[in-house]
Amino acid sequence: MPNAIAWRTVCTELKENDILIIIECLKAFKIGKSQAIFCTLCALPTPHLMCYKILNCHCTLCKQTAPYAKCPRRAQKVVYLDRKVASLLELGEHVARAVPPHSHNLTPAQKDFAKQIGMEAARIHTAMLLHFGLRPSQLPALQKVQNVVCYYRRTKLGGNDTTAAIVEAVQRLAFNGGEEEHDPFTFGWDVDREGKLVVGNGSDEKSFLVGFSTKALLHQASRDPSTFIFHVDATYKTNQVSYPVFVVGITDIARKFPLLALLVTSQQQKCHYAKAFAAIRWIYSKVLGEQFRVAYVMGTLMLPHTILLLQNSEVIASMIISYAIIT
User: Fold this and answer.
1) Sequence spans of domains, the chain
2) Which tens digit of pLDDT belongs to each residue from 1-42?
């Protein structure tokens, strides 16, 4: 039977905010283990959980002093989840007792602020100066703010940008004909042998192109082509990786802009526009059972050389291109 570890008590049953103040005074550490188990320390009769974390020394000065040895210093943080209190224990001594300067950790209030503000990590990092009245030297490192934001987006908001997750989400919502009028679906141009959408990784060889629409949106273009202008524009501020988004719609005689579809692509090359327009015509014919008829087209300054691809189509009688400079 292994011998019991002789932990030294630093503090017991303090509020978590008070524990964080003590932890902030410790040397740099890295969490080696974090696990929730049934509590074995409290005297409460009802079963409840506690969470314990092992904090291993990660001090650069200790590494420089003993580069081929592991610092024996460890700490254990035990959180009693029902009572919202925590205890801190320690074991061993640091190889080097000096404390080098290190960046501050985020407090629970700062983490909540980062989750609620809904901005990019760099802007959240700057906004903390005014919101909490901090000096620049008291700010946590930008990387720590990025870790909190990315973890919250990935686990709570479903923001996972891995290729496998994107492919699974796109293919799960792919058009199959059985959708209701207002159910969103995805579509594209490239498909594999099984008929599934091919979602690239954004490279030159495997470009990314995915469209989003509903049957109700596409039905808005089922009208006399001489009564509307087919409108294509591009924007860049709707996603984290700044992929161009083609906004496809029509401008009618009432000066309204009914949206038809949104297409996300990795680049703005001739081949990407060609596939985007082909995908729109394909999905329109699948939903409405007729060809997409267009008489007038309006695009931006980025589109003339690609919109000309549509001239070979029999469904276009004439074309008017209005140039709008994107500033």
Assistant:
1) 1-102, 104-159, 163-312
2) 567 778 888 888 888 778 877 887 788 888 888 888 887 777
